[in-house]
């Protein structure tokens, strides 16, 4: 193939970004030059998201944008949207190749076969995907933090979520492969790693199923597999910090937390998915825990760690959410007082149980409820950050922000230091001494 330039665009989660980086590396190793998506390229690769109907719409917009840069380019669509709706994606004018969420290493070879007039669908069924696709990527984020995919797939089947159908069953990455990539990250001077996946709490479940050979009878999650990975990564001298992506209450055990406290490099920032503070709503969502169990997890984290940052996701306006149910969520969130909440209005996604549920909530009511929770979130965040003023914290500096250099504490609070120095990659203890315009300011 004579065409040697390509561009990528990623929608959605950190897993998608990791996988895009892996695809980029395959193309670069073959002699392609990576260019910006808004510039002329010979191949455009769009890694799509389908978590909401709006995600599908955004994916289509980006797909259509690609060909405008170069009418003689090849347009390749991969990711969750193309996995669940390959025919719909293929109908979009100018799309040449549709692939899904598997076989990332095979994209290059498929591209080499393409002609400008081709329209090819190569989406594999996920029913037969039993092994983690090891991508061995060295291309990560451009700051000091690398996202490392250790798991794929989900078997939780929340009633609003399409992802189990786009990602397949739980597949965990072998520890030796994880550590191999950790070694590469360390050599490339990354100081911090974030372990990510589609459902990180399920890491190792498939290993356990294979060892027990009782797949239909084993539905619980065992935290020891994830602990083993974290403890092993901590042995690498170059990696100074280890974070975990989104978790759920099922993995927050005394054993899990006690062992994490003994890993000095572990960062006490827990993103603990909630979705609703009302048990009736949680039941309709098929979330598999109660508000009491969630609160117990929060209290356990606070028992084992000093000033941990606990963040969460909340969906408002879920079908059937009455004013009383929403008020329960508000009161609950006010009581447990988390550091930060990512608040979303419920978005109907075809193919999920929630799509056809009765008592869908009007958009205006959803919007009003989102705004109410956003105000509560601002209060909680201000309270948490104000309590940090006067404390000495370790910060990993990442990049310049005007006259300041910014970085994050171990519990993932962003700090700013006024300096002319380039502090990229520097780990330093600092004093947090004031807050200016929602920015926590620190000094040596």
Automatic annotation (TrEMBL):
The record's section on SUPFAM superfamilies has: Radical SAM enzymes
Q: Which UniProt keywords apply?
A: 4Fe-4S, Cytoplasm, Iron, Iron-sulfur, Metal-binding, S-adenosyl-L-methionine, Transferase, tRNA processing
What this protein is called in its record is Threonylcarbamoyladenosine tRNA methylthiotransferase MtaB
Q: Which EC class, in a word?
A: transferase
Q: What does this protein do?
A: Catalyzes the methylthiolation of N6-threonylcarbamoyladenosine (t(6)A), leading to the formation of 2-methylthio-N6-threonylcarbamoyladenosine (ms(2)t(6)A) at position 37 in tRNAs that read codons beginning with adenine.
Q: Lineage in the entry?
A: Bacteria, Bacillati, Bacillota, Clostridia, Peptostreptococcales
* EC numbers for this chain: 2.8.4.5
Co-factor(s):
[4Fe-4S] cluster
């Amino acid at each position: 193939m004579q065409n040697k330039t390509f561009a990528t665009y990623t929608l959605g989660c950190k897993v998608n970004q990791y996988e895009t980086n892996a695809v980029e590396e395959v193309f670069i190793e073959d002699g392609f030059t990576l260019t910006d998506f808004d510039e002329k390229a010979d191949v455009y690769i769009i890694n799509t998201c389908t978590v909401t109907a709006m995600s599908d719409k955004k994916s289509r917009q980006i797909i259509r944008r690609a060909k405008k840069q170069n009418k003689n380019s090849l347009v390749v669509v991969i990711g969750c949207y193309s996995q669940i709706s390959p025919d719909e994606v293929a109908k979009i004018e100018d799309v040449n190749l549709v692939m899904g969420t598997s076989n990332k290493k095979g994209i290059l070879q498929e591209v080499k076969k393409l002609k400008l007039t081709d329209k090819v669908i190569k989406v594999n069924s996920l029913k037969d995907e039993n092994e983690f696709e090891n991508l061995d990527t060295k291309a990560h984020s451009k700051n000091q933090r690398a996202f490392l995919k250790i798991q794929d797939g989900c078997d939780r089947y929340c009633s609003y979520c399409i992802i189990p159908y786009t990602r397949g069953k739980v597949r965990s990455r072998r520890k030796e492969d994880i550590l191999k990539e950790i070694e590469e990250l360390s050599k490339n001077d990354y100081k911090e790693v974030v372990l990510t996946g589609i459902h990180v709490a399920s890491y190792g479940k498939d290993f356990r199923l294979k060892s027990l050979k009782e797949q239909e009878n084993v539905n619980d999650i065992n935290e020891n597999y994830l602990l083993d990975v974290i403890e092993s990564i901590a042995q690498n001298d170059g990696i100074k910090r280890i974070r975990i992506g989104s978790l759920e209450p099922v993995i927050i055990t005394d054993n899990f937390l006690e062992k994490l406290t003994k890993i000095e490099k572990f960062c006490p920032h827990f993103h603990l998915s909630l979705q609703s503070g009302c048990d009736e709503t949680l039941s309709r969502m098929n979330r598999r825990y109660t508000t009491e169990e969630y609160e117990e997890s929060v209290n356990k984290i606070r028992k084992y760690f000093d000033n941990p940052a606990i963040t969460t996701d909340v969906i408002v306006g879920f079908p059937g959410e009455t004013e009383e149910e929403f008020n329960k969520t508000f009161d609950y969130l006010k009581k447990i007082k988390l550091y930060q909440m990512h608040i979303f209005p419920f978005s109907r996604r075809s193919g999920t149980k929630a799509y056809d549920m009765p008592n869908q909530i009007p958009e205006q009511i959803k919007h009003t409820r989102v705004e109410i929770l956003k105000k509560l979130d601002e209060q909680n965040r201000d309270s948490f950050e104000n309590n940090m003023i006067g404390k000495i914290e370790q910060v990993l500096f990442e990049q310049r922000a005007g006259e300041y250099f910014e970085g994050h504490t171990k519990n993932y609070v962003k700090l700013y230091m006024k300096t002319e120095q380039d502090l990229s990659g520097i780990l330093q203890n600092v004093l947090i001494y004031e807050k200016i315009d929602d920015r926590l300011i620190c000094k040596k």
